[in-house]
Amino acid sequence: MNIQKKETYSFQSEVKQLLHLMIHSLYSNKEIFLRELISNASDAIDKLRFESISSPNLYNNNKPKIQISINKSQRTLIINDNGIGMTRKDIIENLGTIAKSGTKSFLKSLEDKKNNIKNELIGEFGVGFYSSFIVSEKVLVRTKFAGNQSNEGILWESSGEGEYNITNVIKKTQGTEITLFLKKEEDEFLETWKIKNIVNKYSDHITVPVEIQIYDEKNKTYFWEQINKAQALWIRNKSSISDKEYQEFYKYLTNDQNNPITWSHNHVEGTHEYISLLYIPEKAAWDIWNRDNKHGLKLYVKRVYIMDNSQEFLPNYLRFIRGIIDSSNLPLNVSREILQNNSITQNLKKALVKRSLKMLDKLSNNDNEKYQSFWNQFGLVLKEGPAEDSENLNLIANLLRFTSMKNNSSEQKISLKQYISDMCDKQEKIYYITADSYMSAKNSPHLELFNKKGIDVLLLSDRIDEWMMNYLVEFEGKKFQSISKEDLSLNKLVEEKITNKEETSKEIVDFLIKVKKILGDKVKSVRLTNRLTETPCIVLSDSNEMSTQMAKLFTAAGQPVPELKYIFEINPKHELIKKICTMSNDEIFEEWIKLLLDQALFAEKGNLDNPHEFIARMNKLFIQL
């Protein structure tokens, strides 16, 4: 080996933390390191296949393969591939840094829970290569990028302790060779039977042949033995694939340590021929809300790998779905730009969205416990659906889950079908209320009438709920109605109406005139109500105006909000109202009315424009008692 220039580099600080965690804390299932290295080698071969579409000379007519050899005397395990290889720049970027935002916060979260995370880190962050150091005291990587000259080979060397060396070397063949110098306590990985078992367990389904070097005692020679099926799992007949194989393929594809909740495997023939294999994970990715979150399907065209994380085939609200699509209609040299403007892509997307939603619908009907587990993890993401996908609105609505007044729990378990089946005879609409929290919604004075009538109300307290309800207009012929907005159906629920006598009695007429004069344009109108039982007054939004929660969303987003003017409703049967009606001191009367409005606004909005004035007014009235 002709060694030339040697340079020493320091690992990025995040890599140092990661290596320390991996070597000392995280992995209980050490054998997964081999799965990771084989997966990386398979990806390198897939990338070479793709690049060779436009540059056929890169392929060199070599049969794609991954080879594993053991040297017991030197205590080394070698994994070699003839894939695309790496340049010096690739080596530094791929093996010396983690170029992804959110790294520090991710590592901090690992430190906080490292005793529980065990194997969950592998693949979670694209750091599979570093798992080599769990079993190795030193790692060598010899690589040459496809198309480069033999004198452009690179040797990378590290003990995983903060630094790595890079040297220019001669390497005649393209691809990457990784040599692991195993620790003394890792003898099991020097056994051929152990390596075979690991490959059969984790890598049987990858499309590249994995070979192991075997020594023939009789003939005193070495030969290569293929130890995996090397057939794409998704092209096999569904009846020949076991649940275990589907689960292992999912783990290989996603680097997730948990089994998927469910999956859907489909071969479609006709105008657009394709195969899809879609999975629903058990747990949400730690960075699912991060803008840099990588999601989408792995794309193949006629069994040839094209790209990872192709987001063109599923909408953003289904970003938790993982899997592959293998199309027979797309061109092999397809790019992301072509995908975005391709009619075939749009047709495939429509079909895959339907398939995904039906997969979830089947899960919700067949296994309520598993669906509830899915909803607890991904419900907030799915709630983006009504705004993004009007075409499938009914399918999405059927999958939504809510909590309600009668449910008496913050866990969202109730479907809209269940709510409708439990509706009262005279109930015309699906009633709901939005609030900042579950407890705020549960204790809203707007619920008093519904408690009295035994009518259930959906309690919506996720930030996205108000936005979602703007697009969720009706379900199975029943319209949605916010109980904090004025509506005719709400008035119909009040059997005991305010009598004309009460409305026209001199005392109440004078009272309403005085209240309107005091509040002026602070409110839209003032009127009596029998909707309340425990509360003296509330405020309602006009049916055509922005709701309180929507105004909060606008404010949080830095958007201008029009001035909100509420309808002020007063309960004439409340003892406090009766007492205020009899007050002769106009100044005290005015203070009480302003206090009542502030109370109602505080209950509705959760805040006041001038809380100090409210407190001062309340203290002033306390003194008068």
Q: Could you give a quick summary of the protein structure above?
A:
Helix content is 38%, strand content 19%. The protein is of the alpha+beta class and 625 residues long.
Q: How would you sum up this structure, described in words?
A:
- The protein is of the alpha+beta class and 625 residues long.
- The chain folds into 4 domains: 6-226, Heat Shock Protein 90 (2-Layer Sandwich); 233-376, Ribosomal Protein S5, domain 2 (2-Layer Sandwich), CATH 3.30.230; 401-493, Rossmann fold; 500-624, Heat shock protein 90, C-terminal domain (Four Helix Bundle (Hemerythrin (Met), subunit A)).
- It is 38% helix and 19% strand.
- A 9-stranded mixed sheet has the order 1-6-5-4-7-3-2-8-9, covered by helices on one side. A 5-stranded mixed sheet has the order 10-11-14-12-13, sandwiched between helices.
- A hairpin with a 2-residue loop joins strand 18 and strand 19 (478-482).
- Helix 8 (343-366) packs parallel to helix 11 (393-399) and helix 21 (586-605) crosses helix 22 (611-624).
- It is elongated.
- It comes from Buchnera aphidicola.
- Residues 29-186 form the Histidine kinase/HSP90-like ATPase domain.
- Belongs to the heat shock protein 90 family.
- This is Chaperone protein HtpG.
